[in-house]
Every structure is written in C-alpha cells, then in structure tokens.
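User: I'm new to structure prediction. If I give you an amino acid sequence, what do you actually give back? Let's try with this one:
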Amino acid sequence: MSNQVNSLKKGLTVKDLVTTGIFSAIFFVFTLVGGLPFAPNPVLTFYMPMGAALLCGPIYLLMVAKVQKRWSVTILGIIMGIIWFATGMHWAFSLGYIGMGLIADLVAGAGHYRNKAINLLSYMLISLGGIYTYVVFFLDPDGWASTMLNNGTEQSYIDTMNASAPSWLLVVIIAGTLTVAALSGWVGGKMLKKQFEKAGITA
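Assistant: Good question. You get back a string of structure tokens that encode the predicted 3D arrangement of the chain. For your 203 residues, that looks like this:
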C-alpha cells in the first residue's frame, strides 16, 4: 500500500507524458471511428457518445495501467476538449471532456489506478464527456443553436435535430453511453488481462 501511495505522490515523468500523449492520440482516433458514423446525420447524432465509447475502453484502461499516476487521465480529458473545441464542436462538448476527465482521474486515483472495477467506472465517467453538448441542447435549444450556427452548422441540420429529439432521448443518451462504456471496458479487461496482471491491476 505504501508503494502505491508513494507512486501517486510522484509527479508525471517525461516517459509518462509521452505515454499519455500517445494513448490520447489513439483514444481520439478510436473516438472518431466509433462516433463519426453518427455525427453527420442530424437524426443519429444523438447516439455519437455511445459510438465514441464503444472502442476506447481497452485504450483507456491500458493507459491507466501503464501510467498509474495522478493527472494522466486529466491530461487526456484536456487534450480531447481542446481538439473538439478546435474542430468547431459546441463548448459544452469540450468542457464535458475536460470536467469528466478530472472526475475520472480522481475516481481512478481512489483505487490507486490498480483496481479493475474502479478503473472501469472511471472510463464510464470520462465517456460521459460527450453528452454535455446534448444536455445543453435539451436545456437551452435556442442558445445551443445560436452557438452551432456561429460555428458553421447549417440551419437545416439543427431543424432536423429539433424535429427528431423527444424529451426522453437525453435519458437514453446517458444510459446508453454508460452501458456501452461498461461493455467496452469489460471487453478491454478480458483482452488485456495479462497486461493488467503485469501492472498489478487487481479485481
């Protein structure tokens, strides 16, 4: 236990930062692969967070296992937020990833980054980063539309979203994203069992 606590107190090394950067890039690519089939379609765009969560579980869990230090997950969330902001996504999409990255980091840290169940919960939480643009969409549709129009989204796209979004859909987005993330993380745990055992990841 003392070794685990001491590991948490140590700052990120250059190697840790490089590892975090590499895995963040892979995480983003897999997010695109899973999410892009939904994003261009104004009817299916609401399911983008689920698609994004589908493939990233193994990537996230392996990064946590390799670094096992505070701030790595936070950096991942910040990188994701910056990229999404730079690509013209709604500000809530970016802030969602940054905020949930910090929360996910704290949760994983509670298990010293070595507990499978807590690390999985951490992944489920960071996967919620992509839902906040839709939270704003449902809570403040006019404000959301104004921001997206300024970002270059066509009015017809927004009109179709409004016409195809019942009020209960937000619950589906949240529950669906958590479910898909849990499945992705569970599969990742099975795929990377040997790597986790080597890193001292426990049940």
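You can read the tokens as a compact description of the fold. Here is one thing that stands out. Residues 51 and 149 are 24 Å apart (CA to CA).
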